[in-house]
Amino acid sequence: MSNRKTPLVINEHYHIFNRGVDKRAIFQDKTDLDRFFASMQIFNSIKPIGSIFESNFPTWRLNRQVATPLVEIIAYCLNLNHFHLILKQVAENGITEYMKRLSGGYTWYFNNKYKRNGSLFQGTFKSIHIDSDEYLLHLSVYVNLNNKLNGEIIPLSKSSWGEYVLNDIGICNPKIILDRYTNKNDYSKFAKSSFENILMTKNQEKELQGFL
Fold first, then answer.
1. Is the distance from CB of 120 to CB of 112 less than 8 angstroms?
2. Which residues form the Transposase IS200-like domain (predicted)?
């Protein structure tokens, strides 16, 4: 039985996030970033993947269609030392199984490549239940633009922003977000306005921390 404070329920949405142990970088180069991104789709299957992943990776291609997925990926942002995901659980125990495969598979790859041992991520992934449409909409902005929170795109990062507003081929299903708007341009306008508030709040928090 899981002792997770936030129960993970089918057809509910969650903010999933984690970072490198001791805040270390989890991506050393673009190949690492591409590997994690590919893993996000390849491990999203009820069927076991096993060693097939290693042989398939060089010829892997983007494909939103997954026959029997564990989760539905709504948005993501992969940063140098941490990641954010918005996931909908569509299979029993789907998020837990998905994150176990994703984190475990990538850690094996990373440790093998860089000749290291031990954990790469800081414990078990964190999860927050997204309990309202408003929360989901604003969180989509936070995640899609998370690699720009310092005013410019963070090196070695990748987000689903292009899948939302630029017609990029990817792995997300942004329909639950974009259906709230007349078109992608309207979402883009909402996102930029919401993002300004996020930046303002972040800057205020930094100022307050200086007095602590």
1. no
2. 9-146
For 40, what's the count of Cα atoms within 13 Å in the CB-facing half-sphere? 28
What amino acid is encoded at 68 in this protein? T
pLDDT digits (tens, 9 = 90+) for 89-146: 999 999 999 999 999 999 999 999 999 999 999 999 999 999 999 999 999 999 999 9
**Domains assigned to the chain:** 13-209 (3.30.70.1290)
**Running DSSP on this structure, what letter comes out for residue 15?**
E
Report residue 56: phi and psi, to 5°. Answer: -85, -20
For every residue of 21-81, DSSP letters joined together read GGG--S-SSHHHHHHHHHHHHHT-SSS--TTHHHHHGGG----S--SS-SEEEEEEEE-SS
